[in-house]
Design a protein that fits this description.
The chain is about 5% helix and about 30% strand. The radius of gyration is 16 Å and the shape is elongated. A two-stranded antiparallel sheet has the order 1-2. Strands 3-4 form a two-stranded antiparallel sheet. A two-stranded antiparallel ribbon has the order 5-6. With about 110 residues, the protein is mainly β.
């Protein structure tokens, strides 16, 4: 880790060029050494604040940008996911792309 990241406590962030650590906004958090905060689903990190995704878009927790829902699907759960046709659920992949997938049978 860079020298500036080693002194950053959990729940704070310090971007390159900042002289001191700053607390994460309410509802967000960060790991030790972070240069940004992790925002809740439906929001994204942008210049020191958690911003809501724009209409027809969604984001998973910790996103740095939002993604548009596919055609004919709409954001649900406060922008945490997109709606899906009957029998399917919204899945976020590790690379933060989302898609509708068949509901797994137990």
């Amino acid at each position: 880790k860079q020298w500036y990241q080693r002194r950053v406590a959990v729940g704070t962030y310090k971007s390159i060029g900042m002289e001191s650590c700053v607390s994460c906004p309410e509802g967000s958090t960060s790991a030790a050494g972070s240069g940004y905060c992790s925002c809740p689903a439906g929001k994204y990190w942008n210049e020191g604040t958690c911003k809501s995704c724009v209409r027809d878009s969604t984001s998973p927790e910790g996103a740095l940008q939002c993604a548009l829902c596919p055609a004919d699907l709409a954001p649900i759960n406060n922008g945490a996911s997109c709606s899906c046709p009957a029998g399917k659920i919204w899945i976020w992949t590790p690379d933060r792309n989302g898609h509708s997938a068949l509901i797994p049978l137990l």
